[in-house]
What we know:
Layout: E1 3-4, H1 7-14, H2 23-36, E2 44-45, H3 49-56, H4 60-72, E3 76-79, E4 83-86, E5 104-105, H5 117-126, H6 128-131, H7 143-155, E6 165-168, H8 170-182, E7 188-193, H9 197-205, E8 209-216, E9 220-221, H10 223-233, E10 237-240, H11 254-267, E11 270-274, E12 318-323, E13 335-338, H12 341-350, H13 360-371, H14 373-398, E14 412-416, H15 422-431, E15 434-435, E16 451-455, H16 460-480
Parallel strand pairs: 1-2, 5-15, 7-8, 7-10, 10-11, 11-12
Antiparallel strand pairs: 3-4, 6-13, 8-9, 12-13, 14-16
Helix pairs in contact: 1-3, 2-4, 2-15, 3-4, 5-13, 7-13, 8-9, 10-11, 14-16, 15-16
Bound molecules: pyridoxal-5'-phosphate.
Pyridoxal-5'-phosphate (PLP) is lined by residues 170-172, 196, 241, 246, 274, 276-277, 323, 325, 330, 335.
Amino acid sequence: MDSRISARGLAGALGGWRTRAPAYEALADGIRLLCLDNRLAPNTALPAERELAAVLGLSRTTVTAAYQSLRDSGHIDSLRGSGSVTLPLGRRAPRHVDTDADAIDLQQASPAAWPGLAGVMSEVAQDAASLIARAGYDLIGSLPLRASIAARYAASGVPTSPDQIMVTTGAQSAIQLVATTLLRRGDRALIETPTYPHAADALRSAGARLVAVPVTTDAGWDLDRAAQALTRTGPTLAYLMPRFQNPTGRTMSAGEQRAIAEAAERSRTTLVLDETTADLAIDDPEPVRAFAMPYADAAAPFADAAVPFADIDADVELVRIGSLGKTVWGGLRVGWIRCDVALIRRLAAERPRRDLGTPEFEQAVATRLLARFPEIVAQRSLLLGEGRDALAVALADRLPEWKIPSVRGGVSLWVELDAPLSSGLVMAARDEGLFLSAGPRFAAVSGHDRQLRLPFTAPADDLRRAVDVLARVWPDVRLAAPAPAAPDLVSAIV
Length: 494
Ligand SMILES: Cc1ncc(COP(=O)(O)O)c(C=O)c1O
């Protein structure tokens, strides 16, 4: 057994679990969803039935029946004397669709690969002999790639030298490396809620205690909460997605950037800006930041105003994280960190524990891709625009009772349901072959059961079919939820 979750911890993670009757099935579904989302890791010991019943205000028989249902569906195992333990999951076939081909997977918000990628890979393969002439172990990254990335920043108003760049295996490993380098166990880390869940996991596993600041598509960042959190808890770092925040799609205004930077200066908090989604503008006619071509004369058109925190006066340490995962392809696994040279040195000293560099082939591909960046972001803009519009139109038509935000870029709509039943809805949709992540998966601490992330990265036809499924199951999910709503077990986000 790897870890255990207390009854209180499980109650908090479950949030508004009472989405249908009977209660034992709703509870079992809530725990299933935590397993599916990996919020309950395999081999986690569940609380004893009696304790969970007391914390949830249920009879012990209800919890016993829920655990029995979980055993029947292969989600937990109960061993005499050692309680109930979650099991590693295979992907269970949906109940009401005939083949896996009919299933629609919207758990990941990842667009299909940029169509020119295969051609660029073939070009690099032609040059393989010169690639393998290099040593191959390089903690910082290849100079041509670092120079291209640095030139891109410089051209968009953030003067940068190649020494200020480290190439990583995607943004996720950049986040992990920054987290383990900057944080000590017990330090505070400020984070948005909702947020990108794997970043929250990385900060937690580096030992951070998370302090959440709400952000919504309509109102943006809760600046009072951000200022209070920075002043009172003095976080070591704040992890933010200032442009096309995932999942809300919101972009920080200049005023929001200033307020946060000034508060961070006072609390001496490092701002870690994740710009993985920053280039995914849909409505802007020009790419936000075109990449410069350091070894070519041609000057690309640059729209510099949109680089978050570029014009901020405050004396605050900024670490920028970028990636080609959304702009080009998730499977490329090329990301980077931009920060001052002293921190690059600390990161390089920390890195070998986890990996010894980024593959040379992918770096060579990335270098060529950056020279074609304006073309790439223009294609992404069209693709994402089609998805966003198809999804928004279908939702407005089929589920007018939901609040559909309007976004100008990013990868998803953070939809507000007319009842806090996101988890129940996601379970019901799974049985119809539609795979989604429920709102609470994106919570920094807890909550968000009224929200659902709907990525618009899939083809428009799939998105329309997905909305058909949601419209079909939603009335039953709503009806089955007992009224009045269950007591709120979600603890306040501070
Ligand atoms: C905001 C954000 N940061 C980081 C990542 C991880 O990026 P990568 O695939 O480059 O590791 C993602 C991917 O979904 C993301 O949305």
